Amino acid sequence: MKETVEAAEKAEEKAEEEAEETEEVVEEEEVLAEEAEAVEKAEEAEEAEEAAEKEAIGEVEEEKEVEKEEKKEIEEEIVEEKFYTIPLSRAWISPRKKRAPKAMRIVKNFIRKHMKLRIEAEKGEEEEAERLVISNEVNEKIWSRGIEKPPRRIRVRAVKDKEGIVTIYLAEGD
Q1: Nearest-CA neighbor of 154 among 170, 130, 132?
Q2: Is 105 a domain residue?
Q3: Which domain holds residue 151?
């Protein structure tokens, strides 16, 4: 009977040792699996960063191409382009604090007259009135010395596109 008890104890010890070994193996496998997951996540993050960089570079290149195309379209859309020297001396007749606004109105009226723009669309027509756009450079030039002292004259470039929109730019060299 002692032999069977000893054999049973040995069997239990072996089972315990095997269980401990399997637990250690399982723990090692879990640690390895966690490390593998961390490595995979790091690799995915690196790939995502590389993809984002490539997309950013691609977007920049695409933006440059789009800008070039837009410039070409703008150049192609020009129907009529004229240079004018607009006298602003009548703005000086106005009170001091109203001279620059008066000069802006003079510029608008001059361009409407010389580029043959309709002031308002007729009621029966569905078309909108032709538009007049003054660029920021022209505005800054007129307001450069303040409200009291606009320039006596200004040289501008008026551009009419296919849609009938007239844009006023400062003539080059001014």
Answers
A1: 170
A2: yes
A3: 79-170
